[in-house]
């Protein structure tokens, strides 16, 4: 049994008028450590939690606070998480219970119901640590070289600063000439001349990215110029594609970073982390809506250079290996995973007759897990046992006055859309219980059946809109299983309308609340509990 610590936030992260944090904490006295703090991200709280880890020899930690995305991208919660990792807590044994955006805020007038829901959410977070095992950590000595994609003014300025910092730079564009606006050419000419004459820089036109693998500090990139291919190794990547939506769309499946509602590459936080993406080793030069000036472009380029070089100047970078696993005892070498994987991370070892995973290519999306016909695969970060047990834990949540709905929310779009609903103040029934998953393609028919077996009235499957999936093919693979979902449900004598699919973007909080409320109302008509 792992020694686990549970730490609540009562102030910024929890509206304590909705969730009784103090009474909730008292229900977990059997754990190795329990604490309630005003703000988990404040230095005094960080130091006390770190001390609790040390004194109690904790192996896992649950942070019962706000959305992990908000905690890390806005509040700087990565300071606490990094300190926990330094203390020996494996990243896979740090779990979050999102009690603010997905409990306290949407249920402000229902303290009793919100607190019951909060307890179920904490129990699910604890279960994740209980059944998960530590991720393997790989140490990378970062390469002092950067690929700059796009010969816009921002790309040229970024390449110029990188060269001056002693980095090797490859600057590419799929056009045959510079993208820089004509009126800015005179201003950037000195920077361009420095790049063109530097032995540490190369400029390639009519060139595109054909393939990408690896991690921050050590990427292998295949460049393609006509029929020729060249492999380069870089520590980081800066995106300077500007307003070229067509190129962005082509690069998206290779780079594995998020895009916004219009399809452009998206930063982690437009205000405080405007050049950072969901991959630490890939930075972007922010595009500006409408007319902008060279000063803003230069500031964006400089910020991107600072962000990328801050990482690459480290002696080593630790990477958790978030791959899917293979049970070689039951793997049938059917090659379903090979056909399913959008990243070419799966191959077959024909001598051993088993599937093999390339950790430099696997993104841990879990699509292959749901597709595997023998059940030989599992996802390290969202293991099958955890998801099954989470369904059962939620099923034991006391009645909350409306049809009980289990909401599978993909990490890329549906989960942040639920966060947004709470942040904007939209309400929906507390009986809607959220279960985050890496990707919609991870959802297996087994989870649907388990949920109905345990008494849920309806299942909501929240996923990215077509073309915006963080893992490229999540909605596509779920679509292939839609009819199977419904056929299996009908075979159990249930109305197939008890399963609802929600295609949504991260910013559509109002739509999330509207759709959830409508689903609950429709379940009442079908015969859901009231």
Distance between the termini: 38 Å
Task: Supply Rg.
Answer: 24 Å
Question: Could you give the count of β-strands?
Answer: 22
* Overall residue-averaged pLDDT value: 90
Range of helix content: 25-40%
Low-confidence stretches: none
From the 3D structure, determine the CATH topology of the largest domain.
FAD/NAD(P)-binding domain
CATH architecture of the largest domain: 3-Layer(bba) Sandwich
CATH superfamily name of the largest domain?
A: FAD/NAD(P)-binding domain
Structural class: alpha/beta
Biggest beta sheet attributes: 5 strands, parallel
Query: Strand order across the biggest sheet?
Result: 8-7-6-12-13
Given the structure, what is the number of helices? 17
Whole-number count of domains: 4
Strand content: 15-25%
- Label the overall shape: globular
Q: Topology of this protein?
A:
Layout: E1 4-9, H1 21-25, E2 33-37, H2 43-56, E3 60-65, H3 68-73, H4 78-86, E4 94-98, H5 100-104, H6 111-131, E5 137-140, E6 145-149, H7 153-164, E7 168-172, H8 185-197, E8 201-204, E9 208-215, E10 218-225, E11 228-234, E12 236-239, H9 245-255, E13 282-284, H10 294-312, E14 317-320, E15 324-326, H11 336-340, E16 346-349, E17 354-357, H12 367-371, E18 377-379, H13 384-395, E19 405-410, H14 414-423, E20 432-437, H15 445-453, E21 458-464, H16 474-491, E22 499-504, H17 509-526
